[in-house]
Design a protein that fits this description.
single chain, Chorismate Mutase, subunit A, 53% helix, globular, binds prephenic acid
């Protein structure tokens, strides 16, 4: 179960944090499925492709992000320690500040959203969408923002994960020693748990396959019951399946797995290491 960051008396446990990361897998997979129903619509991402009546210079997506983040900043989104904006110069909230318990010690206010944005626009979108332009720019960019926000939240959760590892009595002294040495490589080794990563990738593949199935009339019998794999060989669930089977799911499950393996987990670990390297700055 995940916990409300506002009512935390102490740092969440590693188990609680991992539960939140598991839940965010669902959010991310569904957001990717939502985006993949529209074509690539590359015009959204090109700088100065569209002319804005308000004089803005940049891409349609960055303009949209700026507008959305302005509204969200006003309702205190970026005061929450697990929410990080992609744009700058945001307005002050219209509501009084909330008192978040000081769980994180984050003097640098580490924010890797630039890397997340580049990875998402240049690798994820071309991978999950069909090429071409269907002019659904607003709808596509709305889904893009949902994907970006979910990825950003997941990756910056690495700060909480790092804090709980730092506070774990079994490894605390070792972390303190490595932080004092500013030993990035050893910190990376110490915080890595290969077994957890392996299980995560297996679970993610199963989820992407199951959530990605199209339960349309072709996969139902006359009574509206879902056909089991042997009744409907062509549209069977495809755990361990081939490329042509993969194309029948709403999102390419191999792509979801490689997104996590090559970007989401490494960026989370990068956030963890950066956080730890600065953990003792104010001591
Ligand atoms: O669960 C952890 O211990 C984490 O640090 C999170 C995470 C991940 O990104 O999912 C990152 C590093 C570990 O090797 C395992 C998993």
């Amino acid at each position: 179960m995940s916990r409300n960051l506002l009512i935390l008396a102490a740092a969440p446990t590693l188990g609680e944090l991992r539960d939140t990361l598991v839940r965010l897998e669902d959010t991310i997979i569904f957001a990717l499925i939502e985006r993949s129903q529209f074509k690539h619509n590359n015009s959204i991402y090109e700088e100065n492709k569209m002319s804005f009546k308000d004089g803005y210079k940049g891409s349609f997506l960055t303009w949209f992000l700026k507008e959305v983040e302005h509204v969200h900043a006003k309702v205190r989104r970026y005061q929450s320690p697990d929410e990080y904006p992609f744009t700058g110069n945001l307005p002050e909230p219209v509501l009084p500040p909330l008192a978040y318990p000081p769980v994180l010690v984050d003097p640098q206010n580490i924010n890797v959203n630039e890397d997340i944005f580049d990875m998402y626009v240049n690798t994820v979108v071309p991978g999950i969408t069909q090429p071409g332009d269907d002019t659904n720019y607003g709808s596509s960019a709305t889904r893009d923002i949902e994907c970006l926000q979910a990825l950003s939240r997941r990756i910056h959760y690495g700060k909480f994960v790092a804090e709980s590892k730092f506070q774990d009595p079994a490894t605390h002294d070792e972390y303190v020693r490595l932080i004092r040495e500013q030993n990035r490589d050893r910190l990376m080794e110490l915080l890595t748990n290969a077994k957890v990563e392996e299980l995560l990738l297996k679970r993610l593949k199963a989820k992407a396959i199951i959530y990605g199935q199209d339960l349309s009339s072709a996969s139902m019998d006359a009574n509206g019951n879902v056909k089991t794999p042997h009744e409907s060989p062509g549209s069977s669930p495809v755990i361990g399946g081939k490329a042509e089977e993969r194309a029948k799911t709403r999102v390419d499950y191999d792509l979801v797995v490689s997104l996590y393996r090559d970007y989401v987990i490494p960026l989370t670990k990068e956030v963890e290491v950066e956080y730890l390297l600065h953990r003792l700055d104010s001591d």
